């Protein structure tokens, strides 16, 4: 039997790490491996969720939301049963002291590092939620597991921070590309949603991962996600009408995101233990599903049915309201999942409704409802998820219509602009903001948060007792020795800063307490304060140097504005160099 010596394995890993750091081709190969793994994981997760739907509801393939009616009411008990399963999962992971890290948060704050346990928890919760019929999509766990696989592999290979972020984006994008059979969609998802920027250094690995995942999907027998055909050309009137639709979708997207937050706050006030809220949410979802099964799951089947059958305006509006209610209840009550595909379905509903309402005008102007549905899908999804090019590519790859892409991009860009101006967040970053995070996008701000006052302070300050007189100050601080001194009490507590020049004023009474000359008595910094807050304090106080105190008010260091600004510029230049692969 052949045994491989441990030191040979370690040496091989070291050589692999060096190769990956120095060779772009090697990194592309690594991204290809990640793409293949993400493709397999995505197909497997979809199969698990659909198997649960088949077990609970008896439906086949992907058609839970396409059911005409629920013939057996008792089958809807799957919803509270799924909530019970989530309660059990929550009990298992109750010892965790923090929420799981998703791919956007990981890339923005942690340099792409995602613990393996977080991937398992998110995947289990999302598959159970979708499998029992809650109104959430699987795209969140697809991206999470794809990015998680990349993160684990990258951490094992000790990749540089920017390389790890790129690999995580490539893995997440490959997973989303697999979900739709649309590699370009996956690539732009990586750029816009997970990495946060486009650069030439990212293109090859991200595209390689997405293409590989799509090939794996085909090899596993999964068909790409195709939508209905659309009109061949669009007039100026169409562009104007769909631009208005983009604004409408932005408003609806903001309303939905706000509703989720309001519902979550309301749920926190309800006297139901946190662990059992999904069970209560499942009970609330049952009557909605009984009225319209289109509220169940993400809505894949319902979207196709509605595009083919062209339902009435009243039907579309009723389902729209019910689906929004179902999604809000699902997320607020603790079901895990994303709004990517749910927003696509909601967008198709508002788009068709908009087209039908527009056609009621007395001037004979008309829109094709199917076209409006596809534009609405992209515009609402952009408002909630973000990524105008991602959705434009999705429409292109699923309809194969270039004329549609231009209209979709117009509506999507307007939707993005309105959402950014009025709201400022996507759904994922909004939820992180509500939790107290500083994230507004996937761009790497982890370096900014780690650059604290404690890391920038110096310890060679000059201190003078707060009870000292001007004469005693002059003895302790000779002119020319330092520009200022810190007043401290007997216990080391901070009492302000005295400029040396002020203490040497010729008309000053030598017996006067020097504490009367102190400035910035109430202005100081804590060691854990980040660089943005430090700069803000310098701006408001108009000081050139500040004291840093611990939780007991004792001075532990000082920091100057010039040094802070220099460190800030150095870190920005370093981040840009990493981003462009320099």
TrEMBL record:
GO MF annotation list: chloride channel activity
Q: How does it sit in the membrane?
A: Multi-pass membrane protein
Instruction: Classify the source by domain of life.
Output: Bacteria
Record field: transmembrane? 25-48, 72-89, 167-190, 202-227, 239-260, 280-303, 315-333, 339-360, 372-396, 402-423
Q: Which GO terms describe its cellular component?
A: chloride channel complex
- Coiled coil ranges (UniProt) are none
Q: Name one Pfam family in it.
A: Voltage_CLC
Where does the record place it? Membrane
Grouped into one coarse class, the protein's main location is membrane
- Pinpoint the CBS domain residues: 513-574
Q: Which CDD domains does the entry mention?
A: Voltage_gated_ClC
**Alphabetically ordered keywords of this record:** CBS domain, Chloride, Chloride channel, Ion channel, Ion transport, Membrane, Transmembrane, Transmembrane helix, Transport
> What is this protein called in UniProt?
Chloride channel protein
Species name for this entry? Novosphingobium colocasiae
């Amino acid at each position: 039997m052949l045994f491989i010596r441990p030191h040979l394995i370690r040496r091989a890993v070291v050589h692999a790490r060096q190769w990956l750091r120095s060779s772009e081709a090697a990194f592309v190969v690594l991204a290809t491996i990640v793409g293949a793994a993400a493709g397999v994981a995505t197909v497997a997760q979809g199969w698990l969720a659909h198997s649960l739907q088949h077990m609970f509801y008896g439906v086949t393939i992907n058609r839970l939301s396409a059911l005409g009616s629920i013939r057996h009411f008792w089958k809807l008990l799957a919803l509270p049963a799924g909530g019970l399963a989530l309660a059990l999962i929550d009990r298992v992971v109750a010892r965790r002291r923090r929420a799981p890290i998703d791919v956007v948060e990981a890339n923005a704050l942690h340099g792409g590092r995602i613990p393996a346990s977080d991937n398992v928890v998110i995947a289990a919760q999302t598959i159970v939620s979708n499998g029992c019929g809650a109104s959430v999509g699987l795209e969140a766990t697809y991206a999470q597991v794809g990015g998680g696989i990349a993160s684990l592999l990258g951490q094992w290979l000790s990749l540089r921070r920017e390389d790890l972020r790129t690999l995580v984006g490539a893995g997440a994008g490959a997973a989303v590309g697999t979900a739709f059979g649309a590699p370009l969609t996956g690539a732009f998802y990586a750029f816009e949603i997970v990495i946060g920027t486009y650069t030439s250094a990212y293109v090859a690995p991200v595209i390689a991962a997405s293409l590989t995942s799509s090939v794996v999907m085909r090899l596993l027998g999964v068909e790409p996600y195709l939508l209905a055909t659309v009109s061949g050309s669009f007039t100026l009137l169409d562009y104007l009408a769909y631009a208005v639709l983009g604004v409408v979708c932005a408003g609806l997207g903001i309303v939905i995101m706000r509703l989720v937050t309001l519902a979550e706050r309301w749920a926190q006030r309800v006297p139901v233990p946190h662990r059992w809220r999904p069970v209560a949410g499942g009970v609330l979802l049952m009557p909605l599903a009984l009225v319209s099964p289109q509220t169940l799951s993400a809505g894949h089947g319902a979207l196709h049915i509605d595009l083919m059958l062209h339902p009435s305006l009243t039907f579309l509006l009723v389902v729209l309201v019910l689906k929004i209610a179902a999604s809000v209840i699902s997320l607020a009550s603790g079901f895990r999942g994303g709004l990517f595909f749910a927003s696509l379905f909601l967008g198709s509903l508002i788009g068709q409704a908009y087209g039908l309402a527009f056609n009621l005008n007395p001037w004979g102007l008309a829109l094709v409802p199917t076209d409006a549905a596809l534009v609405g899908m992209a515009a609402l999804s952009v408002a909630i998820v973000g990524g105008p090019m991602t959705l434009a590519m999705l429409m292109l790859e699923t309809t194969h219509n270039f004329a549609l892409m231009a209209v979709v991009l117009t509506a999507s860009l307007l939707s993005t602009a309105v959402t950014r101006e009025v709201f400022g967040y996507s759904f994922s970053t909004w939820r992180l903001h509500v939790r107290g995070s500083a994230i507004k996008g996937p761009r790497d701000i982890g370096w900014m948060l780690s650059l604290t006052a404690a890391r920038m302070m110096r310890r060679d300050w000059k201190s003078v007792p707060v009870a000292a007189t001007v004469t005693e100050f002059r003895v302790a601080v000779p002119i020319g020795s330092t520009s200022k001194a810190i007043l401290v009490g007997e216990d080391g507590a901070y009492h302000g800063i005295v400029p040396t020049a002020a203490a040497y004023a010729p008309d000053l009474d030598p017996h006067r307490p020097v504490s009367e000359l102190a400035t910035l008595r109430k202005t100081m910094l804590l060691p854990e304060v980040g660089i943005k807050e430090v700069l803000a304090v310098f701006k408001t106080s108009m000081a050139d140097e500040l004291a840093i105190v611990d939780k007991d008010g004792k001075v532990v260091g000082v920091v100057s504005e010039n040094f802070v600004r220099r460190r800030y510029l150095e870190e920005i230049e370093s981040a840009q160099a990493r981003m462009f692969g320099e």
